[in-house]
Each structure stands twice: as structure tokens, then as C-alpha cells.
Amino acid sequence: MRILQLHSDFIEYKPIKKEIKLAEEVEKKKKKLEDLVVLFTAIEKNDDENVVRQAVDEVKSSLDVIKAKKILIYPYAHLSTNLANPNVALKLIREMESYSKKSGLETYRAPFGWNKQFHIQIKGHPLAEQSKVFQTIKGKKPIEEKVSDAVEKEEKIKSNWFVVDTSGKLIPIEIKNNEIFGKFDFSKNENLKKFARYEIAKSRVTHQMPPHVRFMKDLEIADFESGSDPGNLRFYPKGKMIKHLLEQFVTQKVIEYGAMEVETPIMYDLEHPTLSDYMNRFPARQYIVKSDDKEFFLRFAACFGQFLMLTTATMSYKQLPIKLYELTRYSFRREKSGELSGLRRLRAFTMPDVHAFCKDLEQAKKEFIVRYNLCKNVLNESGLNTDDYEMALRFTKDFYENNKDFIKKFIKIHGKPALVEMWDERIFYFILKYELNFVDALSKASALSTDQIDIENAKRYGITFIDENSKKQHPLILHCSPSGAIERIIYALLEKAYMDEKKGKVPMLPVWLSPTQVRIAPVSEKHLKYSKTLAEKIEKENIRVDIDDRNITVPKKIRFSELEWVPYTIVVGNKEIKSKNFPIRNRKSGKVENMKIEKFIKQIKKEISDKPFRKSSMSTLLTKRPKFVASI
After folding, report:
1. Does domain 511-624 have CATH number 3.40.50.800?
2. Which of 199-208, 451-460, 538-547 has the lowest mean pLDDT?
3. pLDDT tens-place string over residues 479-511
4. What is the percentage of the chain residues whose pLDDT exceeds 90?
């Protein structure tokens, strides 16, 4: 079942013509409903009553958030190419109507089987437009979900919550009725307050589509894939470009840090004693696949392959810390379906994963700080500054008592207060962990950069080094993702753009990540030849450029350039060709500056600096490009 959910000021519709023999008998009269949620609904093959009720329950939850009670179920076959038999579809549409009324919703329904004329006005808030997909598989027994011991423990764990201020002092806090209580003054730390409320509640379920989903679709970055498991997205050419640039950038930074890049398998033996034991210590749900008569789990990080790689390695204390890195395409975690939301939380994601194998705790703590600076640098150069994220520190009471000075030093380097989760006893394999968390427009938090000190797995895997006395010792292992999942960086940038827009700023991506960095807008067809020559000159300087060669006016070309978040737009006409002086529109400032193309190239190259470059895989001419996301 597919639903396009639109919170509307009104909808006015009129049945025009029967499209199928099964069409319901109705009068061809206009009907108008005001202040309601319209559910454009397509019933698909394999849908059943359970899917219908699941859909209504989900819709009702989202209506509670936007304070709406009235719905119109509007049969709309155009949402799917996998439609159910009309008899089944009508039966389920009626069931949907009945169940909605029983659920307490004021429910209306447009006639089934008709071609209808409609006029709709959608409200302007960020949750007004939402897309939902609900699926079931008939006649098949679901594969048993493997839940690690750590997941079950995490759900039951008792946490003590604090804020650590910049002096290193721990200030207890707690949450009651969604309000934070404690002696810490959150008045100058509103973002930290939102983050603390979200973390302490420990609820990851989302009841509405986050704002970045609209940008993700409108900009043709990524979209949901109905032919796959939920949480597995498809990326269009522009999205693939952004992903690749971020992957290349993070990898470049990690190699500069000193890590050796490797590649490891994506699946591992579920019955392998060491792997199975570690899997049960990691708080993640598993994907299980079968090959021959064996079961394998898909990796949720690069740990397994890197640890197995070092099991047979010979290492000296003089070589430590040794650093291994892999950009995993992909890592897999079977997140709960209610937690999946756009790019924020996925089941298949690209994860940069760098481990450091350290001699002892002192070396591990020094490396921890080095890697924190790596993480901060990666986020900042990706377009996220320190005001955009909040830190969570997690450790046991014993670790804190024995390492207070280190925690004070670390928080001083961070430069602002952080949330602390302290446990009375160690539940996981690590003794210290931090995350830098982005807080989005819906006050949901998502971990970006993270690192942790692991004291178990070297012994579990049999990883050793030779110490000063020629004896074998087990190293400590640091687990770090300098950026977090690549997809989550894109999510954070889009959510930040949305919040900037609400503050009156222009939403945009960093120039180095923009799929098109320069748009050339020829005044007419006779200026196209020169525009192509100009584009070639710009492209030779490793700048992505395209040409709007469509037969539309210049103002419309500029408007479309703005809608696509193109940082710079150049208009080319007779005057510009003659003078070689071009009006260049800067999206960020909104200003137009006339300059020679050589000066402009020098200026944009300075802005891009040493960031990675990748040539666009799309045609330079807009008329040669397909439209991947159709307008509704």
C-alpha cells in the first residue's frame, strides 16, 4: 500500500468518468472538504487487512502530531505500477474507511474507480507532505530476526544521566513528563537540552517524515525503493556524486591520519565462535542470509574483517598504534521499521570505519584525542560546525573515578558542555565512548562521528603484539567512524539547510559537494555555441558546470537554478560575449557581480580549496537529462 499524505486547507473534487466496470455508483457532484488530511491511496498486490490497519494506525499517529482529526481516503492508482485486483482494492479501501472510523477519525472517502477532477491547497508546514509505504508478504514464513544479547541489555539498561560542564563537573539531570530537571542551566544550551531529552527518553521511533526527505527528493539525491527492504535507498546521479565526494574526502583524511586501507567480506559465519560471541556484544540487529546449509550474518561494521586480518599478524609495541581503515559499502543493521526515516536511519549504509590498536590505556587515551580532532575536522570541512552537533560521553562509574582528569581534559578540548551517560557496571565491550550527534528540525538526534575504547576484542580474537620484554600482550582497540554513515552526513546537511531556510537564510550545500557548481544560462539558442566553449573552459579547471539549453526565458532559467541549489549562475548573451564580462549570480549572497571568467574561476577554486573533485556523469546539456522525480 502506498499513501501520499497531504495536510490541506481544502480539497474540492468531482467524479468525471468511470474508469472500470467496478466503479461505485455516485452522483457527479462537486464535494469540498476543509482543514483535513487527504490520503491519496494505492492498494497493491499482496496487501491485506493487516496492512490496511497498520497504515491507519501509522496515519493516526502522525495526525496526533499535527493536531488533525479529519481524513479523506482518496483512491489514487497513479502511485503504483503494482496494483491489486480492483475487487480486492475496493474491499480494502472500504476496510480502511471502516477501521479509520472505529479508530476515532472523522473519515470521508472519494469514490473508487472514477476519473476525478480535483483542486487542493496544501498547508505550508514541514510535515504537511508525507509519503508512506506499507508492505506484507503472504504465504512466507519470515526469517527469524537475530537480536544480540547487547540489544536486549541495552533496552533494559539503567543509566545515570549528567551534563558535564567545561570545567569537568558532573551535574545530575533527569527527565519527567518530557521535561528536564537538574541544576544545569540549559538557557544558553537549547540544542543540548533537545539532545538530552531525546537521549534520555530512549525512543527512536519517528511518527512523521523529517523535512530533509522533501529536499532529498526535490534535489534528486535519493528516494525510497519499493523493490527492496525498507531502509535500503536508491541514489540518483546527483546523490551518487555527493556520496562519492564525501567518501573520497573522508578516506583522504583518514589516510592522512596514518591508517592503512583494507577491504574485507560483507558476510560472516553465524556459527563461528569468536564472531558469534562478538556479535552478541554489539547492540545491533542482524540481517541473516543462507548459503548452502550455513547461515551468515551481514556485517554491521568493518570490525570482523579487520580483527580477523590481525589475528595472524605479527606486531611490535614499537609499531603501535597500528591503524586499519575500511569504507564499508555496505554495513547492515536491521533497524526497527518504525525507526526508519529518510537518510537519517537506514538498514544499509556506507560506513567509514578506522580501528587503532594501542599498547595500553595511556596510549589509547592519547590516540582518542588525536582521533577526536580528526572527527571534528571531518565534520567541519563537510559543512557542519560545532554549533550543529552535541557530544554524548558514555562510561562506567569505575572508569570515571579512575580517569577524572582525562574526562576534564577531553571536555575542555571539546569546548562546550556535553551529555553524560554513566553505568554502574560495564554492559558492553568498551569502557569509554563518545558520539557527536546532530539534532534535526524535529528534535531527533543522530550520531555522526564516534569513537570508543574496546578492552575485550583483542583477547576474543587472539590479536597480540610483542612487548618490551618479548612477551605477547593484547592491545586495546579504538573503534572510530570519523563522519558516521556517509548517508547521515547528507541527512544532516539537508536538515541544516532546512533550518537555515526557516531562519531566512538560503538553503544550500557546500560548493564542493554541489552536483552542479556553475550553471550557464544562454539568453537564446544563438548563444549556445559560445556557452559550450565557456563550459569547456570552466570544466578544464575541475569545476562542474552545465548549460540550461531549454527553450525558456532567462528568469525561468535562473529560477530553476535556484531550485536546484546551484551555487553560481552565469547569463550569456550578446553583451557578455562582446565584453567578456559576465554577470555571475551568487546563490549564497543573492548578489550579481560582473567579472571576467578567469577571475571567477580563480575565486571558485579558492572556495573549493583542496576538496576532492569528480566529473559529473550527467550530460552538460539539461535537455539531455531525464527527470528522475516527477512532480505531483
Report:
1. yes
2. 199-208
3. 999 999 999 999 999 999 999 999 999 999 999
4. 66
- Do 161 and 174 touch, CB atoms closer than 8 A? yes
What confidence score (pLDDT) does residue 144 get?
47
Task: List all residues 6 or more positions away from 166 whose beta carbon is below 8 Å from its beta carbon.
Answer: 411, 412, 415, 416, 417
- 352 has a pLDDT exceeding 50: yes
Cell 521499521 locates to 337
Rounded to whole angstroms, what are the CA distances from 526 to 275, 305, 531, 558, 577?
66, 58, 10, 18, 11
CATH number for the domain running over 155-264+299-494: 3.30.930.10
Residue 73: strand pairing partners: 39, 109
Q: Tell me the C-alpha to C-alpha distance, in Å, between residue 91 and each of 60, 84, 94, 230, 389.
A: 21, 11, 5, 26, 48
Per-residue pLDDT band for 559 (boundaries 50, 70, 90) equals very high
Name the residue with higher pLDDT: 511 or 81: 511
- How far apart (Å, rounded) are the C-alpha atoms in residues 330 and 249? 18
Which 3-state string (H, E, C) describes 543-600?
CCEEECCCCCCHHHHHHHHHHCCCCEEEEECHHHHHHCCEEEEECCCCCEEEECHHHH
Is residue 242 exposed (0-12), middle (13-18) or buried (19+ Cβ within 10 Å)? Answer: buried
Does residue 461 have a cis peptide bond before it, meaning omega lies within 30 degrees of 0? no
CATH for 2-133? 3.50.80.10
- Amino acid identity of residue 105, one-letter, is L
Residue 373: is its pLDDT beyond 70? yes
First to last CA, the chain: 18
For CA atoms 197, 200, 204, 207, the dihedral sign is negative
pTM for the model stands at 0.78
Same fold, 2-133 and 511-624: no
**Span 544-572, mean pLDDT?**
96
CA dihedral sign of residues 369, 374, 375, 381: positive
Kind plus residue range of the DSSP H or E element containing 237:
helix 237-257
Which of 567, 426, 576 minimizes the C-alpha distance to 507?
567
Q: Which of 594, 572, 576, 580 is nearest to 528 (CA)?
A: 572
Q: How far apart are CA 299 and CA 294, in angstroms?
A: 16
- Count the residues in the chain: 632
Over 70: is that where the pLDDT of 283 sits? no
Are 79 and 116 contacting, i.e. CB atoms less than 8 angstroms apart? no
Backbone angles phi, psi at 509, to 5 degrees: -95, 160
Q: Where are the domains of the chain?
A: 2-133, 155-264+299-494, 511-624
In eight-state DSSP terms, residue 166 is: T
Query: pLDDT class for 182, splitting at 50, 70, 90?
Result: confident
Q: What values do phi and psi take at 176, rounded to 5?
A: -140, 130
Q: Give the span between the Cα atoms of 299 and 304, in whole angstroms.
A: 8
Strands, DSSP E only, in 183-242? 222-224, 233-235
